[in-house]
Amino acid sequence: MQFRMSSSEIDDFFKAHKIEGSRISYRVANRTINYVHAGNDTLPLVVFVHGSPGSLSAFIDYFSDSLLLKDFQLISVDRPGFGHSNLGEAEPSLEKQAALLLPILKKHHDKSIILVGHSLGGPVVARMAMDYPELVDGMVLVAPSIDPDLEPNEWYRGPLATPFLKWILPRSIRASNDEIWKLKPELQEMLPLWEKVNVKTVVIQGGKDNLVPPGNADFAYERIVNAPVELIQIEDMNHFVPWSHPHLIKNAVLKLAAEESDEIKISAN
């Protein structure tokens, strides 16, 4: 129920796939943020951000993709409250989550950076693009929970978030409940900020997604008005895109990177 790989399991994964990967942690705002990194640090960067519950292991298999590692350096993070980033201690504020991940963007500020966010990781990377537009060059939103009007009214989340009941939950489920309980007002707070998104965005959404309504993809298309948006909608696809359709995410990253490279060449000429 922890939804995470142990440190030794991560090391074994890298060893088995002959990847020169590393586990990295840093402290910020009294929190520990954990992530894994692989690839040549002179290359553009792709940052993967998992949903809820989850951990960096949601995207670990992408690190074994030789084409991605040839063209990019890869990072997958444990969001606050998950994995090895203070498991069980959620940070419901999307603004604060974005700020807690900011050191990663700053560390690689001289590289092109593409953000990939799945499910609740979607609004986190969107908030990063809103708050730090100078550090983000592209965004892939995968089944993202971003439309406040489409958030379900799950009455039980409130009681489970109280001190009387929350401690009976496994830590990963506790953190997930705490942030989902507060997600709708967080998304409402973001409504006037969508016009700040100025990077090319790909939205991937399944028509049979029973966890995040497909209308979230339309919301992104309507709200991102100052940057190109491409919708990839697969009617028979469910919510678990990173595992069932990894090629869609990989191809979106490659396309964004190619377009960014073309723009740099045109600018240089």
Question: How is this structure best summarized?
Answer:
The protein has 269 residues and is an alpha/beta fold. The protein has helices spanning 7-16, 66-71, 94-107, 121-131, 157-160, 171-181, 183-190, 215-223, 241-244, 246-268; strands at residues 21-28, 31-38, 45-49, 73-78, 113-118, 138-142, 201-206, 229-234. Helix 8 (215-223) links the parallel strand 7 and strand 8 (229-234).
Structure write-up:
It is a single chain. This protein is of the alpha/beta class and 269 residues long. It is built from 10 helices and 8 strands. It has an 8-stranded mixed β-sheet with strand order 1-2-4-3-5-6-7-8, with helices on both faces. α3 packs across α4.
Termini separation comes to: 54 Å
> How many helix segments?
10
- Structural class category: alpha/beta
Strand percentage: 15-25%
Give a topology summary.
Blueprint: H1 7-16, E1 21-28, E2 31-38, E3 45-49, H2 66-71, E4 73-78, H3 94-107, E5 113-118, H4 121-131, E6 138-142, H5 157-160, H6 171-181, H7 183-190, E7 201-206, H8 215-223, E8 229-234, H9 241-244, H10 246-268
Parallel strand pairs: 3-4, 3-5, 5-6, 6-7, 7-8
Antiparallel strand pairs: 1-2, 2-4
Helix pairs in contact: 3-4
Question: Which features characterize this protein?
Answer:
269 residues, alpha/beta, single chain, eight-stranded mixed β-sheet, 37% helix
